[in-house]
Amino acid sequence: MTECTSPLAFCVAGARPTTAHRRPARRCERPLLPHPSGRALISPLRRARLSMTATDPSVASSEGSRGLPSVLVDILQRKEREVQQLKADMERAGAEHPLRKRMAQAAAGNICSSTAFSGAIRKPRGTVCVIAEIKRQSPSAGVLAEVPDVRFYSQMYYKAGAAAISVLTDEAFAGTLDDLRTVVEHQKNYRGNFPGPCPVLRKDFIIDEVQIAEAAEAGAAAVLLIVAALGREKLQQLLQATERHGLEALVEVHDEAELEVAKAVGAKIIGVNARNLHTFEVNLDVCMSLIERFPEGVIAVAESGIKETTDAWRLRDAGFSALLIGELLMRASQSVKHGANAYESSYNQAFGIIRAFQSKGSVKFGPTTLARGYGMNEGAKESLGYLEM
Q: What is the pTM of this model?
């Protein structure tokens, strides 16, 4: 099954482009309530269109003629409603609301910055690490795994050597902020160990600073910012907000135009999603092509379509520092419960996949079939980025 890690990409995975998918976005956009001050409101959806077409010619040629994917239009509209509801709740709660306090502290510059996420996933050339994801389901693939307790995955990912953990908090993926809080709290058990606790990424459709404040309050070390959902102006604003709240941002791009936007706003961690949001095809060659245009010092993360160990090694050799893996690990972890025999039931394939992806191996001399099994059980347990004797 094709691996797809972006929350946006999962919504469209397996879909086929139709006329409906390409309907004009204006037919989907709902008007927003007027602002109490009387100022006109511009939705993130419209702001993304204006920013992508008016402020960056290279993006205008890429996105302006095609418009946003209809699935993204629908998601942004839902997120707008969620943000409005959250802000209304904050208004009713008054100055004592935790997020209001957090926003005030950030505005005053009273929050210390952290580089826990970038520090965990930045690897030397020729070395790769895994950002392991917790995701119960996706709108297209349905239920991926039974997750009665996210601490099971938090423990497994840590012991397997994952550099960081990504947690879906969007309702379409059956995720919640409580999942993120639980993982953050569980990782505290590894303080004083080497390596230390895994930093946690909030994986969601971030369109407003209040969502960043939510992530920080829940203990996240980083958030995902999707260029296709924001445009240049809004991306710049949210990147600055992320820094004010002491977090880092994984900025996701899908093509060269979006990469130019990410570079222009000074993104320090850029993820290339190999899924085309208009054709829904996955092509790892997109990752291979775009990384050649990465600025020096920017951390490169590969997302989607990573199915075999040789895929991981190929991306590693191209210069990617981290691989964000979701559906593949969630499905593989179910072998613990659904193995055909006692041996299979006792062996967690997800654990082995992480070790294999990070293992020292050669694309040239590696196998083309059953590649996932290679690197799992090396005698010295030596893997790129980690050495356990």
A: 0.78
